[in-house]
Every structure is written in C-alpha cells, then in structure tokens.
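Structure request: NADP-dependent oxidoreductase domain-containing protein, Sulfurospirillum diekertiae.
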Amino acid sequence: MRFSHATPEATYGFAKRFAHYKDFYTRHDGLIFSKLGFGTFKKEPYKEENYIFDYKDALKTAIHYGVNVIDTAINYRYQQSEREIGEVLEELFERGDVKREELIICSKGGFVPLDFPFPENPYEWISEHILQKGLATSSDIELDQHCMTPAFLNDSLERSLVNLHVKCLDIYFLHNPETQLTKIGYNHFLKQLEEIFESFEARVREGKIKAYGIAVWNAFTYEEGNSEYINLEEVYDIARKVGGASHHFKYIQLPFNIAKTNAYSVPNQKNV
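Returned structure:
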C-alpha cells in the first residue's frame, strides 16, 4: 500500500538504513525525523543568480545520505523552490530510491507567492490571483506581501500540493503571522487565528495535511510586551478550543543559531 504521507513504520525503516549514524534521528508524534533537514530559503529571490543553480542535486544527495525532513514555503524563490522539490520527489519515487511515506514534507503559507519568472507587474498578479478570486481584500494584505485569510491559505496549500507533486503535506505552517500584528492588533489576531485553525483542521479531515503549526521569525522568542510577541499558551488554547484534545497543532518553527539564541536564553513562554 502506498501512503500519501509519512508513517511511523516507514520513517523508522528509513532511519534503520543509516544505523551507523549516531544520534542523527529523533522521534516525535510517532515519526522518525532526521535532526538535519533540507531547507530551500534564499534571500533576495528577485536576483537572477538565485536561479542559475537549483536545489535538485543537493536534495537528491541529502536524501541519499539519510535526510528525510524537507522544509520549504510557497513563496521561496516565487514557488520555484517547491517546484524543484516536486520534480526531484517524482523522479525518486518513480525510480524506487525512496518512498513517499519515508519522508516528512513541510511547507508554509502566509506570504504572497507571486510566480517565477517574476511578473512584470506584481500588483496585477495580486489582483488577478487573489483579489479577483475573492481570496482576500486589499486590506487583508500587509505590506503588499503577507495575507492570512483562510481562503488565501487554502489556495496556497492547493498550489503547494501541485508544486510538490504530493497529495498531502505532513506539516503545514502558518508563515510569520507576526507580520500582521502591528496592523490588526493582538486580540483581532487571536480571533483570526481561531478561524485559520478551524480551516486547518478541516484540511486534516480532507487528507490534505497531517498536522499544522506556526513558523515564526520573532514571535515566540521576543519578550512579552514586544509588538511582535505571540503567547504560545494562548495559541495552544485556541487549538484545543477548535480541535479538542486531539487537535493537530503539533509543531512550531523558529530560528535558533549563533546569532539568534533567544529560543534558549530568553524564558518568555510559560506553561507550554
């Protein structure tokens, strides 16, 4: 039986093929994750040099050597990152090098993706693909780049599934929601988050995603009182309200590196 998503048995079997790697894998929610994942972000995506070299060979090599976590977002390189991943996955699946259920595939929605090649007039693209379709109004789009109405996020998810050549994502992240906080205010943000989580739970029931989460840049690491701070306990409360004890809000993503150490050094979240 071919699954459309990662499974505990298959991810465990994948990891067993690399048993000589010491402490390279970890378990969460039954799945076995490689501790090193494959990311596809590239700054300044409008620069031509970001398309001269692609991710295809690098992704093939990563999977060949035991990486089974793939992380991307629809807006990375104007959807091109997702499409390159999709081409590689289709090739590897057809060749039998790896199975879909062995891989944990994650993407994100929230930023206006535009398209590659970059449209001559991005505002026309936004009008045609978002406003005229009724996915959002112009007031829902912050800084001409970020939108998180449920309709827009659903459309982004469908695009991601097509780009990635898969039927289901293992994790779908709401992408940098703090982008909207200053504009809409914290209380309104929590109400909107409830609507988003209701929509995500519906996508789980439809088999489009297995779990969802929030990917942030600053929101979970800034101190309380900062204009971009999000209280994680309140987010969990919303998930429990929407989905009950069996809700599917299971993941967060945030930067943690030598330059951004707050995830470890700033105790700003309680009871989580």
